[in-house]
Amino acid sequence: MTMTKEVFQKEFCDKLTTTFGKNVEEATDKEAFQAISLMLKDELHRKWQRTQQAYQDQDHKQVYYFSMEFLLGRLIETNLLNVGWLNICREALTDFGFHSEEVFCEEHDAGLGNGGLGRLAACFLDSLASLKLPGHGVGIRYKYGLFQQKMVNGYQVELPDYWLKDDYMWETKREEEAVEIRFGGTVHTIQRDQKLCFEHRDYERVLAIPYDVPIVGYQNDVVNTLQLWSAESMSNHFHFQSPNGHDYYHYLDYKRSVEQISEFLYPDDSYYEGKLLRLKQQYFLVSAGLQSILQKHKKSNLSIQQIPDYISLQINDTHPSLIVPELMRLLLDEEGLGWDEAWSITTSTVAYTNHTTLNEALETWPQEMFQTLLPRIYMIIEEINERFCRMLWHDFPELRDSIHQMAIISYGTIHMAHLSMVGSYSINGVAKLHTNILKKRVMKPFYTVFPERFNNKTNGITHRRWLLNANPELANLLSTTIGKGWIKEPKELIQLLKFAHDSSFQEAISNVKLRNKQAFASFIYKQYGIVIDEQSIFDVHIKRLHGYKRQLLNIFHILHLYHLCRENPHLQMTPRTFIFGAKAAPGYHFAKNVIKLITSAAEKINNDPVAKDKIKIIFLENYNVSLAERIIPAADVSEQISTASKEASGTGNMKLMMNGALTLGTRDGANVEIAEMVGPDNLFTFGLTSEEVFEYQRNGQYRARDVYNSDQRLRTVLDQLVTQFFSNDDVEFKDIYYSLLMKNDEFFVLKDFDSYVEAQQLVDQTYRHQQTWLKKSITNIAHSGKFSSDRTISQYANEIWGIHPVEI
Ligand code: 26Q
């Protein structure tokens, strides 16, 4: 039956009655949300079943995207859009006196990720389903997602994110598909029928239970699966016999330790610490996911040898890299294959994506901790390492001096990136520049050994969430101008180029932006009681807080502008609202200090009449996917100012560009490709190149103090950090001061300052010529189609996975 508003309203009322015993007048927003999601669930489950049937019947190759993070955000709007009910639902709710936005806000964000890497995984699932591709996600059902950030006196305070408190409407628990995971114990080598066998004894047993979340394709009847695993204890693991209660207390200890496994998401990104619990999480994910995939494969009467023809396993960074030895273990110990055959299957099935070249983010594990927790897996890694090093010795004599740098295990440490490269058939970076840095520098010897494995897949974002849903006004304007084709073929946005100079289209674009800015301003007023000028430039810096992302450079420029205002009350400048959103890892002292600097500057500048009508600073609390959806449509300027070479790709840059913001950025990550697409006139580029950064790192000739000494503007700004400028506390920001002057400014903030100020001046001047600005803005939207994750996923499908669309 096709959905109409009348049908929707009737079913909605029925759901309210049968679920809550209420009519529409009595129902709360939350009950309305639940009623709609129950209606959706009925519809989705029908399509879900049909899709799974089709995948089985047509025996297609399927891909499984293994990731420790899936940063889904809310699903209600995506699901409504994709089944084709969104407009009907909005109208129906309005008729009944609800505000649809408020009803949708009842869904708690699923914040099962830190930032870029987790959100990328979510965009990929959306594109897989929308392209009718048989691809699924495998992750962990953390009880607590990424912490909620609360600002207290300008400081970040972390609160637990208990996102499951109202039940998660989209998940289905599949108890019958539970599998067992084994930790610890000992491995015994025994002879059985002339064969060496490995018997694992005295291990701890953990039950892994999958919760399935449907991933709906855009109006195409496809529903794929995101399988999220939860850890539970097994009461039959213990024999309760002891009369003194010892068994019972042991059981309670065991139960607590097991339930910890899927308790919370580690809140660190780009910084790695070798915690035992994190290792448990990683093995838990990999072992549960793989066992269930192999069970299904065997059920469909396919042979073990056919695995590479029917399954691809993509690993999202090294976090799931234990998939390599775990697949080996299952093939050797459970299926009885020999080493060579098992290795050939494994290395034709696993593919690896790298997301970082930062040294401090590379995963390694201490051998002893690893061996105690995963004794059999350790043995297998040892064997992989032996064979790999022996191969290097024989086949690459020119690399003999590098073997110790390439080994998977060296000096008591296990290197997960090495394991991932050795064990997979594809190794990809996430932007052209990043992939080249991998090949030429970070992974150079591996590129020599496995040149055919390396490839680039520039990241993308789902334009359905980040344009169609987040910015409906712009989406409508685009559709009335160039037709609706861009929704299925985002590259069609290029037709907008014809209208870049069209003054009536420019005006329409300008009006949409203004309305989005007004909506955001009224949200800010409601939330923070701060009035912002809708005519000012909305300058947006939203991403995790990290040294290399250089929020510090931004705030230094603002402090410099403020100083100019104080010196000259008649300063000519386009009014600016500087908007920040960022979470710092809870243990990252420097990053938290930068947050405090931003909020201290905001406090001072926002309340100084000298800066009134010129500068406002907003630090948004608890930046997350839903907040991003509000800010991005209102942005004029997109701050992408990482130290060149450090940001693998960035994806916020793509979201902002797609919504008409102009990039102010370094030649880093995907900024390079954005610049390539739009041309140098349509964004603001500044700063050192990655080659220059590498050269300084090599020759050690950068002297931050010299830059400080020779630039009066920097002296003014830096000295304010340690002279009671912000408060009586003159030591609060001394660590920032020292990191720049004593530790020689690792991220080249001072070095790039001059170039950044100049670029910012150009932004100011350009904005004054609205027509020029609008032309640039339209050009950016026109070229943003390339950055749809549909393009990215098509490339993964064709060039890595070899999977094809399925007709349902
Ligand atoms: C590792 C070990 C222990 C605990 C945590 C971690 C961990 C968790 C998350 C390490 C890294 C991350 C996240 C990394 C990340 O988000 N990287 C970003 O990935 C994006 C998608 O490819 C890129 O656009 C960004 O440039 C990159 O920084």
Using brief descriptors, characterize the structure shown.
Rossmann fold; six-stranded parallel sheet; alpha/beta; 808 residues; ten-stranded mixed sheet; binds ligand 26Q; globular; 33 helices
What does this structure look like?
The protein has 808 residues and is an alpha/beta fold. It has 3 domains: 1-58 and 75-108, no CATH class; 61-71 and 110-321, Glycogen Phosphorylase B (Rossmann fold, 3-Layer(aba) Sandwich); 463-793, Glycogen Phosphorylase B (Rossmann fold, 3-Layer(aba) Sandwich), CATH 3.40.50. The strands form 6 sheets. Strands 1, 4, 7, 8, 11, 12, 13, 14, 18 and 19 form a 10-stranded mixed beta sheet that branches. A hairpin with a 2-residue loop joins strand 9 (186-192) and strand 10 (195-201). It is globular.
Concise description?
48% of the residues lie in helices and 16% in strands. It is an alpha/beta fold. It folds into 3 domains: 1-58 and 75-108, no CATH class; 61-71 and 110-321, 3-Layer(aba) Sandwich (Rossmann fold), CATH 3.40.50.2000; 463-793, Rossmann fold (3-Layer(aba) Sandwich).
Give the topology, please.
Blueprint lengths: L4 H16 L8 H29 L4 E5 L3 E4 L2 H8 L2 H10 L4 H5 L5 E3 L3 H15 L4 E6 L4 E8 L2 E7 L10 E2 L5 E5 L2 E7 L2 E7 L2 E13 L6 E10 L13 H15 L15 H24 L7 H4 E6 L6 H12 L4 H8 L3 E4 L10 E3 H7 L1 H21 L7 H4 L2 E2 L2 E3 H7 L3 E4 L2 H11 L1 H6 L4 E3 L6 H7 L2 H11 L2 H4 L14 H26 L8 E6 L8 H17 L8 E6 L7 H18 L8 E6 L4 H7 L5 E4 L11 H7 L3 E4 L5 H8 L5 E2 L4 H10 L4 H7 L1 H9 L13 H8 L7 H20 L1 H14 L5 H13 L7
Helix pairs in contact: 1-2, 1-4, 2-3, 6-33, 8-10, 10-11, 10-13, 12-13, 19-21, 21-32, 22-23, 22-29, 22-31, 28-29
The protein binds ligand 26Q.
The site of ligand 26Q has 23 residues, from helix 6.
